[in-house]
Write a structure and sequence with these properties.
alpha+beta; Gyrase A, domain 2; Alpha-Beta Plaits; 5 helices; 24% helix; 32% strand; globular; Sarcosine oxidase subunit gamma
Length: 206
């Protein structure tokens, strides 16, 4: 008999849901809020955005007008596209959308020089938010996160505590979402908690 596939978060062993349930009363006072955003839809997309046929096909499949400015983000409903390079983007959406979205993109891009790769199983998302979030990230990152150069709608590929990450500022709390390879997720979460020991940290649910 074939064993059923059980999708498991790389942070499942930390009991974050139970911790979040016990800390709901302190979220308002927290200087930093950490949350795992498990099983996010994450699709790597490559193609020539200056080709109208490619751009139109992506828009038809996702509603997204792919960003062309370096380190920028485009939004359409629940989907976001992060600029990773002149011909590469990371499309992020809610958990469970990856199969349908990948299929829709591949269908729309049939016959074009493009690549659609579902990386949802390879990467995890962590939220870091709150008034001290920028200070915490600055302890392990060389990127300038000052609001005048890195605000909501900005993203970057960078390193944090020895892990290669995709970093996006999602709001002006400030809130940041980190996409990281599963093999580094536990290391990065533990680093965030250790580096933020002198702040009031709370764990939240997704």
């Amino acid at each position: 008999m074939v064993e059923p596939y059980l999708r498991r978060s790389p942070l499942a062993h930390l009991g974050l849901r139970a911790r979040a349930a016990s800390q709901t009363g302190v979220l308002q006072e927290a200087e930093i809020v950490l949350a795992e955003r498990p099983h996010r839809c994450q699709i790597n997309l490559r193609g020539n955005v200056v080709d109208p046929a490619f751009a139109d096909a992506v828009r038809q499949a996702t509603g997204l007008a792919l960003p062309q400015a370096p380190n920028s983000v485009a939004r359409a409903g629940e989907l976001r596209a992060l600029w990773l390079g002149p011909n590469e983007w990371l499309v992020i959406g809610p958990a469970g959308r990856e199969a349908d979205l990948s299929r829709s993109l591949r269908t729309s891009l049939t016959g074009q020089h493009a690549a659609v790769t579902d990386v949802s199983e390879a990467r995890s998302c962590i939220l870091v938010a709150g008034p001290k979030a920028r200070e915490l990230l600055a302890r392990g990152i060389s990127l300038d996160l000052h609001p005048r150069v890195f605000g909501p709608g900005r993203c970057a590929q960078t390193g944090l505590a020895g892990a290669n990450i995709f970093l996006e500022q999602i709001d002006d709390r400030p809130g940041y979402e980190i996409s990281v390879l599963n093999s580094f997720t536990d290391h990065l979460w533990r680093w965030l908690e250790r580096a933020g020991e002198d702040y009031r940290i709370a764990v939240a649910s997704d």
